[in-house]
Amino acid sequence: MANLKDLRNRIDSVSSTKKITQAMKMVAASKLRRAQDIAEAARPYAEKLSKIMSSLTFSLKDSDLSPLMLKGNNNNKTKLLIVVTSDRGLCGAFNSSIVRNVKNKISELETNNIPVKLLCIGRKGSEVLKNNFQGKIINTYEISASGKTLFNLAETVGSEIIKRFELDEFGSCLIYYNRFKSVISQIATEQSIIPYEVENLEESKEENVFFEFEPEEQAILSDLLPKNISTQLYKSILESGAGEQGARMAAMDNATRNAGEMIDRLTLSYNRQRQAIITRELIEIISGAEAL
Amino acid sequence: MSESERLQLELVLPDKLVVSRQVDMVIIAGSEGDFGVLPGHAPIISSIRPGLLEIHDADKTEKFFLAGGFVEVLSNQVSILASELCSIEDIDESECKDQIQNLIEQLRSSQDEKESNLIQNRLDKLEAKIELVK
User: Fold this and answer.
1) Domain A32-250, what fold?
2) Is the pLDDT of residue A61 over 90?
3) CA–CA gap between residue A258 and residue A1 (Å, rounded)
4) CA nearest A219 in B: which residue?
5) Are A7 and A273 in contact (CB under 8 A)?
6) Residue in A114, A276, A246, A128 with CA at minimum distance from that of residue A178
7) Residue of chain B minimizing CA distance to A208
8) Which top CATH class is B3-88?
9) Residue B93: its pLDDT value, please?
10) N or C: which end of chain A has fewer CB within 10 A?
11) What does the domain layout of chain B look like in residue ranges?
């Protein structure tokens, strides 16, 4: 009898888990739409900025005058890796795929004797990386830190990166984040921020255009580069935010489905056992009656 | 005027697209001086100082305050990347004055050179802003 009761308890607990995962899926779905809208709204600015950046770098391409922040500081081998993850878990392989890539990169760099520093955006990434690379993490930012918009966060992180770069703490900088491709697919991406990778798509087309610069290229660049860094950060944080909700939605959808299957299985064995017990009791009664 | 002789203006903030339409002329407060852009303007990339942005369209003129940013003009395409922006009508003079007062006090008490540069920067922006409504 106790077995029957156990089964009933399991069914109850699995169905309340199912309810929770279903609710989390709904919440993630509505947050996803918002995150996607924000990411979409920020796209024009990032696109225009990278267009200006490519025109500028193109016109400075052959000169030695381009600032260190654009081409990286080759005298300092230290690499800074920026790791963008989420603050919360329960979103499938979203964070672990980023962490895995970062770990691979670190071991690859270390075999080449290149020192590494880490800067984490999002709590989950730093929690995992802390176990192995405690000494390398120079700072951690939480995305949902109170009272800050995401753009402020990007600017704060951006200015810290610039400050540390000017103090010669590292010579180049990579960012790891999940690119939002679609609701079900997020791609763990590696992008170089210092030196800045210009997307070469339009370069050939604009080759013949000679811009007037006001003030001259270097002055604009010294203004533009910090902006570009925080915009790139902003973009990655937004993409990762939309990706997080997408990943959570998919993970919770899976969990809901699994819970449903489990409930079906448990109900089946519950009913079988109940029937077995009834049959056994009937047999007992019938054979008792026959014995008389 | 035919469509090809008008400017395609795109005014963007870091988090949204503000204006995207055809206009006749824009006047921009460049860091080296104000300049107007008409159709057929030579390609130029310039930074923007805190000041006025005028958008002329037929008989209508829209005025904005820009706190800074960049502009790119290329084949009748004007892209303005603003860091901050507000419409002239939305400027509250007394609020600006209060903020300026605050900043001046902060500037006096600040020790750190970087910090006072930052405050000075914000002060300049506000002063440019208040200049527009006078």
Assistant:
1) Pyruvate Kinase; Chain: A, domain 1 (3.40.1380)
2) no
3) 27
4) B47
5) yes
6) A246
7) B43
8) mainly beta
9) 82
10) C
11) 3-88, 92-133
Window 52-71 of A: residues touching B by CB (8 A cutoff) are 52, 55-56
Q: What is the pTM of this model?
A: 0.85
CB contact under 8 A, A209 and B43: yes
**B17: contact with A, CB 8 A cutoff:** yes
Q: Does B117 touch chain A (CB under 8 A)?
A: no
Residue A91 CA to residue A122 CA, distance in Å, equals 14
The CA distance from B32 to the nearest CA of chain A, in Å, is 7
Residues 185-214 of chain A with CB under 8 A from chain B are 209-214
Of the residues B15, B78, B113, the best mutation for testing chain A's interface (the one with the most A CB atoms within 10 Å of its CB) is: B15
Contacts of B70 (CB under 8 A, 6+ apart): A49, A52, A220, A223, A224, A227, B45, B46, B47, B48, B80, B81
Binned at pLDDT 50, 70 and 90, residue A146 comes out as: low
Distance from CA of B60 to the nearest CA of A (A): 26
- Asked if A178 and A187 count as a contact pair (C-beta separation under 8 A), the reply is yes
| Residue closest to B29 by CA, chosen among B9, B12, B47 | B47
Interface predicted TM-score of the whole assembly (ipTM), two decimals: 0.83
Helix (H) or strand (E) holding A84: strand A79-84
pLDDT the model gives residue B122: 84
pLDDT tops 70 at residue A64: no
Provide the b/e sequence for A144-168 (b: ≥16 CB within 10 Å).
Answer: eeeeeebbebbbebbeebbebbeee
> In chain B, which residue's Cα lies nearest the Cα of A150?
B15
